[in-house]
Design goal:
about 210 residues; mainly alpha; Lysozyme; two-stranded antiparallel ribbon; globular; Lysozyme-like_dom_sf; SLT_4; signal; Transglycosylase SLT domain-containing protein
Length: about 210
Amino acid sequence: MLNNKKPLVLFLLLCTGLTAGCATSPPSNPGDICSIFREKKGWYGKAKDAEEKWGSPIPTMMAVLHQESRFVHDARPPRTKILGFIPGPRPSDAYGYPQALDSTWRSYQRAASRYGADRDDFGDAIDFVGWYNNTSQRQCRIRPDDTYHLYLAYHEGHGGFNRRTFRSKSWLKKVSHKVSAQAQTYQRQLAGCESSLKRRKRFLGIF
């Protein structure tokens, strides 16, 4: 009997591992928001919840996550190089989908009363981006649909944005334009598929 059970146990362990891998793998087409939400069951619902809670448009929040991590759940900044080839320390403790710093994440957990939130969980990550953008709207007087300036505030911090620390960073302005363009692309794509995503969300909510 024991020998007969071993193959079954191994099979179940293998299935569990494969399921976990699929759950955390990045979407196969990160440039298409409809493809992302169709592939990643539950992501649209989490994004919609964050949009309704914080007033930050889904395309803007998704464009920020796309830029920060390409939707890799455990992303970290690349290590520096010592003497050009020896792996050195990482430039910061940024981590996860939103590439949030430890200190910023703790501020979010306290402010939003989400002490169990994790940066490598998509629902928590997009809620964080929504919270941060909402704070940028209030502290930096940025419109909720102004992805360009919202990303500048996301990168520089609210104090840095208000001091205009980005003015001398031409590279950062280029990145912000890129994020803004991605948000516009996501907006056009979402307009064509959101009705079906909403229907699926309502259907799944029944069970």
